[in-house]
Design goal:
Distance between the termini: 40 Å
Structural class: alpha/beta
Order of helices and strands: HHEHEHHEEHEHEE
Strand order of the largest sheet: 3-2-1-4-5-7-6
Length: about 230
C-alpha cells in the first residue's frame, strides 16, 4: 500500500481529458471526440499487425474493452499508476465474470511510465491515449527512455490535446488548459518536434494524424503520432 501511494504521488491519478461542459451540445461533442479517438487508435493498432498490445495509462479500460472484441489481439495488458483506476477497469470489464479464455488474454497491473519496468518488454505495440500531458515535462525524457529505448515495441501510438484548438472551446479561459491535472498542452508543431526528435534518437519513423474535426488555422482538437520501429 505504501508503494501504491508513492506511485500515485509521483505521477498523479490519470483523469479523463475534458473541460467542464456547460451544455448538452458540448457534452455530445466531447463524447463524440472521445469515441473518435479510441476508434482511430484501434484502427491503427489493427493496421500495425500487432498481437500483443500495451495500453499505457489505461484508466478505466475503455480502449481495452475495444481490444478484447478483436481476435487479432492475443495478449492485452493495461497499465496505470492509479490503483483506483485499475479497480474501475476491472469493474468495467466484468473481470470477476469474465470467461477463463478471455481472462487469459488480459493482464492489468500498476506501474509508473517513468521507471524502467521489465514487464513492459516483449510487446508488439503500445498505446498512450491522452497520457503524456499528465506527466511533468521534466519527466518526459525518462518516459522516452522507458518506452522507446527499453520497452521498444514495434509500434507506439500517442495521442495528446492540440492546444491551438482550445480557442474554440466556449467555456475555456485564455491561457488555461483543458484539465487541472494537465502539466502541459502542445501545439501541433511542438508535438511534432518532440516526436521527430524521439524517432530520430531511437530508430523509429513517425507519422501524424488529426483526431476530430479539423478547423481552419487551429487544426483538430487532438493529435496522434504513430511511431514505427525501423529494424
Amino acid at each position: 500500500s505504501l508503494a501504491r501511494q508513492a506511485l500515485e504521488r509521483l505521477e498523479g491519478d490519470k483523469v479523463e481529458d475534458t473541460t467542464e461542459p456547460q451544455n448538452i451540445e458540448e457534452l455530445k461533442r466531447k463524447g463524440t471526440l472521445h469515441k473518435q479517438r479510441l476508434k482511430l487508435v484501434l484502427e491503427q493498432l489493427k493496421k500495425s499487425g500487432a498481437s500483443k498490445v500495451l495500453d499505457l495509462g489505461c484508466g478505466e479500460g475503455k480502449l481495452i474493452q475495444l481490444l478484447l472484441k478483436e481476435k487479432q489481439f492475443t495478449q492485452i495488458t493495461g497499465v496505470d499508476v492509479s490503483y483506483t483506476e485499475l479497480t474501475k477497469a476491472k469493474e468495467r470489464l466484468y473481470w470477476n465474470e469474465m470467461a477463463p479464455k478471455q481472462k487469459e488474454r488480459l493482464q492489468l497491473f500498476q506501474g509508473a511510465l517513468t521507471y524502467i519496468d521489465k514487464r513492459l518488454e516483449g510487446y508488439d505495440a503500445a498505446a498512450l491515449v491522452e497520457v503524456i500531458e499528465h506527466l511533468d515535462e521534466n519527466r518526459l525524457q525518462a518516459f522516452e527512455r522507458v518506452i522507446f529505448e527499453f520497452a521498444q515495441p514495434q509500434t507506439v501510438i500517442i495521442t495528446t490535446p492540440n492546444s491551438e484548438y482550445n480557442v474554440l472551446f466556449e467555456n475555456m479561459e485564455t491561457a488555461t488548459m483543458r484539465h487541472k491535472d494537465h502539466r502541459f498542452e502542445w501545439t501541433r508543431s511542438e508535438f511534432e518536434s518532440w516526436a521527430n526528435n524521439i524517432a530520430e534518437k531511437n530508430s523509429y519513423k513517425v507519422e501524424f494524424l488529426p483526431i476530430g474535426e479539423v478547423a481552419e488555422n487551429v487544426g483538430a482538437p487532438s493529435q496522434m503520432g504513430i511511431f514505427t520501429y525501423e529494424n
